[in-house]
Amino acid sequence: MVSFDPNRPDFAPYGFTCVRWNPSPMRRPDRHNEVELNFLETGWLTYLLGGRKVRVEARRLTAFWAAIPHQIIEFGDETEYFVGTLPLPWFLQCRLPDNLVQPVLQGRMISEPTDEHADSDRQLFARWEHDLGHHHTDLKKAALLEMEARLLRLALAVSSGRPPATGRKRSAGLSEGGLNKVEQMACLIAQRYTDRLTVDEIGRSVKLHPNYAMSLFQKTFGTTLIEYLTQHRVSHAQRLLATGDMKIVDVAFSSGFTSISRFNDAFRRACGCSPRQYRQVHQLTE
Q: What pTM value is reported for the model?
């Protein structure tokens, strides 16, 4: 079984993988530009995902975008689980329904509403572990087709079987080149959101006019570049508030905000409470 290496560099790629993991408390968050799938055969896990505590239950497939800082902080006895990783460009090019794609890209963890598919999921993950581990082209192709189909079923399950009409409309106009540009913008934001990034700088980084960069990004992610950048900064602030005792003004500037008033406004809009109230409720205890 594999466990997290705290010396692993941020954003080092995993690629297409499926392996059994041994849960252990993570001394720091991990970040990588893949969509991560978890399937717990037994037990439970609690992640700090962005700045929120999220509990993962056994026998329910879960998916999240791992560019959002994620850190296992608790787990149950005898927890055994599979981890699958899928590069973001592949995930976007699958043209999955918006009710799955948008929440994942916005930093939420999506889980199966019931465990009715648990037995078949256990078989699927075991097969993907075998097929992706043997580096056989046809086996990998079969595994990726099955993964795409399983994600589509997850999207249908979380929308009660009604795929939204907007999903196909949003994706239809995006070429692979466009998706690559969007991925590069998302990666830049995920890596440098604490810097003083501007829309102009983000557009220049992918050789696009800022207005077109904003339009392309919103078409794919369903949110503006500025909103997305702010979301990363708020998540960073949540994590600092939950895991330490840094002064709130220092949390604001360390998270990339340029003033305490902008930080307080953005934090309250995102979380429905002040940073101080958030810390009182969510601060982790030893």
A: 0.73
